[in-house]
User: Which sequence fits this backbone?
């Protein structure tokens, strides 16, 4: 069992930055690929970024490439999402999730989810 708790969301103006954190419980954090997804009312959950178990490989959605960076610190059981040049369309609830196996962009492959943190970008 892995418990995930996100933090760092908030209200920011367009062009600003936020850094999200996701703290994981348990001693098996490094056994999981970690991902960030976002969701807005009425829309499906959207893949944002993911990082390999060691942190050596990452992937991200085209919509955030060049603006968002995912990283992890296995010693601290924490994954981060640095978000720069934020746009109003980035407004969503951002959730982190743990994936033991399978395609990184498919939310169905993630076993554990956090409750999410709200990010609101004003124009």
Assistant:
């Amino acid at each position: 069992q892995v418990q995930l708790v996100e933090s760092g969301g908030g209200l920011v103006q367009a062009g600003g930055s936020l850094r999200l954190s996701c703290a994981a419980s348990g001693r098996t954090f490094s056994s999981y690929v970690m991902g960030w997804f976002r969701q807005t009312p009425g829309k499906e959950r959207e893949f944002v970024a993911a990082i390999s178990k060691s942190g050596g490989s990452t992937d991200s959605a085209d919509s955030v490439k060049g603006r968002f960076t995912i990283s992890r610190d296995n010693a601290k059981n924490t994954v981060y999402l640095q978000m720069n040049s934020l746009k109003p369309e980035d407004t969503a609830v951002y959730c982190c999730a743990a994936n033991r196996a399978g395609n990184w962009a498919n939310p169905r492959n993630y076993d554990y989810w956090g409750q999410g943190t709200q990010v609101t970008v004003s124009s």
Q: What stands out?
A: The chain has no helices and eleven strands. The longest strand covers residues 92-99. The mean pLDDT is 96. The two ends are 40 Å apart (CA to CA).
